[in-house]
Amino acid sequence: GVVAVMITHNVSAHRFESHVGDELAGYVEYIERGKVRDFAHTYTIPRFRGRGVAAEVVEAALQASRADGFKVIPTCWYVDQFIAAHREYADLV
Q: Which of 41, 48, 62, 65 could covalently link to 25 via disulfide, CB atoms 3.0 to 4.6 Å apart?
């Protein structure tokens, strides 16, 4: 069956997290300075790789950052590549 994926913003840990069922599947971490979020690192738990977890969590993080009025710095190569491939987020950089 289909397992629900939930993306949450873990404010205290400075990261957006993807949970598959009740397990952490991956996350993207950021450093916040004023109204800028520097996305430093994206990680997917090995057994959840190949399912689009990273793309999903990065997209949610970018959407939330836009909604909250943040600019982003794509320090993480994955976030940088994601924005390059999805130009609708280019204005956030």
A: 48
Identity of residue 28 = V
Measure the CA–CA gap between 18 and 7, rounded to whole angstroms.
Answer: 5
Both tokens of 46, joined, read 């090995």
CB-CB contact of 75 with 48 (8 Å): no
Cβ-contact 25, 5 below 8 angstroms: yes
Whether residue 60 contacts residue 16, with contact meaning beta carbons closer than 8 Å, is answered with: yes
> What is the value of pTM for the model shown?
0.94
**Cα 73 from Cα 36, distance rounded (Å):** 7
